[in-house]
Amino acid sequence: MDWLLTPGPVRLHPKALEALSRPQLHHRTEAAREVFLKARGLLREAFHTEGEVLILTGSGTLAMEALVKNLFAPGERVLVPVYGKFSERFYEIALEAGLAAKRLDYPYGKVPRPEEVAQEGYAGLLLVHSETSTGALADLPALARASRRKTPRASWGRTW
Questions:
Q1: Cα separation of 53 and 150, whole Å?
Q2: Contact 132, 157 (CB under 8 A)
Q3: Domain range list for the chain
Q4: Per residue in 81-103, pLDDT tens?
Q5: 60-148: what CATH class?
Q6: How far is residue 14's CA from residue 28's CA, in Å, rounded to a whole number?
Q7: Cα–Cα distance between 31 and 139 in angstroms, integer?
Q8: How far is CA 24 from CA 21, 29, 37, 57, 146, in A?
Q9: CB-count exposure of residue 125 (10 Å: 0-12, 13-18, 19+)
Q10: Which of 141, 135, 80 lies closest to 110 in space, CA to CA?
């Protein structure tokens, strides 16, 4: 038997229930455009940036695939610490995208240490911050600093 493992059921606030009862806002209308632009502005505020903010309407896997396919070319080498189901998914996505992915295995729930990801010859490091499948929380600033010393493209992004 197959099981769908999703959060819920959850109790919704009455305002949320009321909003769900209204007609759906078509995504190609001016009203939808206004909502989208407002959301983008609020995200810029939340992330303290004047740069572009991308809103992806899809699952976390969609975001992971978009990142891998837009930052790396097939054949590039990436380092992927695996310490839960979602970091394992990052590794699988890297392979599907044709990357030469080196997998660093950890017991589920144990996160990598900075000295373990400071390896030369990689175009990038694919990390999951909050590995919700195990409750593990990676120290992204420390891991990014360690990786930047050895990874040519690590200076592209900003660590929060």
A1: 27
A2: no
A3: 14-46, 60-148
A4: 999 999 999 999 999 999 999 99
A5: alpha beta
A6: 28
A7: 40
A8: 9, 11, 18, 15, 47
A9: buried
A10: 135
Q: How far is CA 33 from the centre of its chain?
A: 25
CB atoms within 10 A of CB 44: 14
Enumerate the β-bridge partners of residue 102.
79
Consecutive H or E run containing 37: helix 30-46
Helix (H, G, I), strand (E, B) or coil at 30: helix
Query: pTM of the prediction?
Result: 0.74
Closest listed residue to residue 67, CA positions, set 23, 128, 113, 116: 128
Q: Are 147 and 104 in contact (CB under 8 A)?
A: no
C-beta of residue 125 within 8 angstroms of C-beta of residue 152: no
Tell me the sheet residues that pair with 77. Answer: 100
23-70 pLDDT, tens digit each: 998 999 999 999 999 999 999 999 999 998 989 988 889 999 999 999
